[in-house]
Amino acid sequence: MPAVMLRPAQGTPPPRALPPATKQSVTIPVGDWSVTPSNSPGELGLGIQYKASPSLKVGLGLTFTTKDLRIRGTDKIVAGRRVGSGFTITGITGLNVSIAAGTANGALDNAKVKVEVPVEVNLPIPPSPATAGLPLNIKFAFKFSVATALSGKNSTLLASGKYALDGPIGIADGTISTPRFSVVSSIIDSLSGITLGPSGIVTAVSLKAMVGLGTPALSAGPYTSLTAAVGVTNGSALGAALARCRGATLDLKGAGGAGIAISSSVVPILRGFLPPGTKLDVGVETSATILHREQVLPDVPLCRA
Q: Residue-wise pLDDT tens for the chain (305 aa)?
């Protein structure tokens, strides 16, 4: 893989396998939330829990399933000139989502969080002849956001879904490659719980993979990312005589580009030396929507409104 990233090529080389993943189960506090990264063979994702309040409980699982995870980076050289480049990742096979939430006091217990999770998985590659004597680093970084909208005392909300992805994700000559999408089990079919008022949760997770020159603390190079956003709503049980409305949305977005990656542990140190307002996330990115789906059950005017 290092030779692919650094050596010009006339054609497109085969993708190279990533090093074997290692199990990671360290729980990281993020404000009132706790985040447990899932980094093991076959999956990359996050387990998210809210435990700050005894009257609001939220548990989320957002996982990208993988098989034979590989990356490909190319520079096309024709007559001594660079005419194109690309960076893609293959082997992301699906998305699994699980949601469980409950509130004792209804709307008074709701919470929102939108932060960059300080979860990074680094696979450093030391300098060698294959890397032209330069250090390389493979980095996986996560972001997530959660917003709850539970109403009615003693309300609960449960849902899970599985989706399949097939094909590369990334960018080639300025064009985004997006995978094919299919439903294994729809989240709206499993949506359940007792809600005395309309209730819902919106959550999103982003997985960014980057191969760059440098170390885990600071590297620069191409990257690709996949972002999934899921929202579910469950209507009031009091209106079940007319219609118990359930709704779900799913958005998938792919992106690719090049930039600088700075470890979250290093950012506070750099800010101490740099002028206020200095932008550290420098990069160029191209993105595309893979999927946008909305579904309401039952499909009647009352629920569509």
A: 333 333 333 444 445 454 444 444 577 777 778 888 876 778 888 888 887 677 888 899 989 999 988 877 665 555 556 555 678 888 999 999 999 988 887 666 677 666 666 677 788 888 888 777 888 888 888 888 888 888 777 888 899 999 999 998 888 777 788 889 999 999 998 988 887 778 888 989 888 888 888 888 888 888 889 999 999 988 776 655 566 788 999 999 988 888 888 776 777 777 777 677 666 666 678 888 888 999 888 887 777 66
- Residues ≥6 apart with Cβ < 8 Å to 213: 134, 135, 136, 219, 220, 221
pTM recorded for the entire structure:
0.77
Closest CA to 255 of 171, 164, 147, 149: 171
Mapped onto helix, strand or coil, the DSSP state of residue 82 is strand
Residues 98, 157 contacting (CB under 8 angstroms)? no
Q: What is the number of residues in the chain?
A: 305
Q: In the chain, where are the structural domains located?
A: 2-304
Rounded Cα distance between 205 and 38, Å, is 13
